[in-house]
Amino acid sequence: MPDMTVENSAADRLESALTGRIDRPAMDTIAHLAHQVPLPELTRLVHTSTPLQSAVLFRILDKDEALAVFENLPPGYQAELIQNLREPEVAHIVEGLDPDDRAELFGELPANVARQLMSGLDAEEREMTTAVLGYPKAAIGRYMSPEVLSLHEDWTAAEAMEVVRARIDGPETVYLLPVVGYGRVLLGVVSLRNLIAADAEDLVADLVRESISTQALTNREVASRLFLSHRLIAMPVVDKEDRLVGILTMDDVLDIVDEEDAEDIARSSGSEPLDRSYLSSTIFRLVKSRIVWLLVLALSAILTVQVLEVYEDRLDQVVILALFIPLLTGTGGNTGNQAATTVTRALAVGEVRIRDLGRVIWRELRVGAMLGAVLGLLGFVVAGLVYGWAIGLVIGLTLLSVCIMAATVGGLMPIIAKRIGADPAVFSNPFISTFCDATGLIIYFTIATTVLGLS
């Protein structure tokens, strides 16, 4: 077992060497230390360092290490790194990528750079890469591997095994083998285990079982969630005529889901996802990822200020009401965000569909009522004992009403977003908080006006 203390120490020294002055002695030190650092740590250093430092470290790695590190970098960072490397290094890296990974990289590069790299590929690799690039960026066909080992239904098990042995180094996976008929129409799949266990004269058609597949134009997140929900190791990809065009593997699915989840988390907190690591992102890039949403939220928060202005005379009559505004707006925002997060997640994994809108509203209305009853009772007792039972009643009724409203709206907005083709995460936390703040204040002052007899 390797000594983790030694590895970590080497990684720390390598990181220090990269951040210092890069001269010939420093290059020798970097090269020496790089050979002592494991591949995952090298990938982290390349990803989190500045473009210049990453290029220096990358050039020191041998070809196999460089390709392994490059494949584990996000496409946006791959594109930046490519533009900081010499042409011979770039050619080797691009040739070593799978067609789907190559297509994703080309999508991030300037058009002239992508064309130049494409022209350096051999005819077969260029054809497969072009086929993947032909699909929209959000389609799963952009992320499938066109290098798929398929079996024909008329083959015997012995003939199929002979083909597998001859082509085992080419495809991305051979553990699940699609079976096709004439015209490459997908008939099903055969696992490698079942093929090995079959008698030599058994027909592939007798071994085939029904497969879960996806069309190449299906949204990448939808296809990936389907893949994970059925716990697949690979999934055939077909065109509109059910002809086999590629295969989707677990590593591609995990990359897509990680990227989508990172995007949802960032947008639910009011920012845009970073296309590279936090430490290697410039200050300008960090500001750019946050400023737009802050401006949007600042403008929408003006609505809350206007509501307070409308009810300013009520606050003058009963100043104590101002003390509870943070409690009520905070409770409404948190309740709405909880509901939105739950429904957004349910939409992502296919547990909820657009047609379930009525059921979701009814469920969240009841959830909000139960939460509001508990919080309202507590608010009524505490506020009543301290500030009088009339104030306690206002607080209790407001908490009940705000929780019902916020939970219902929080469950509703992600489905509306899905229906109009927007990202449900965009409609969740930031906008729900602002909406619930303004609406909660209207509810609060309306109840206060009625219960306390204000005018």
From TrEMBL:
Its main location: membrane. InterPro entries: CBS_dom (IPR000644), CBS_dom_sf (IPR046342), Mg_transptr_MgtE_intracell_dom (IPR006668), MgtE_N_sf (IPR038076), MgtE_transporter (IPR006669), SLC41_membr_dom (IPR006667), SLC41_membr_dom_sf (IPR036739). GO terms for cellular component: plasma membrane. GO terms for molecular function: magnesium ion transmembrane transporter activity; metal ion binding. It is found in: Cell membrane; Membrane. NCBIfam families: mgtE. PANTHER family: MAGNESIUM TRANSPORTER MGTE. Acts as a magnesium transporter. Belongs to the SLC41A transporter family. Homodimer. This is Magnesium transporter MgtE. It comes from Brevibacterium koreense.
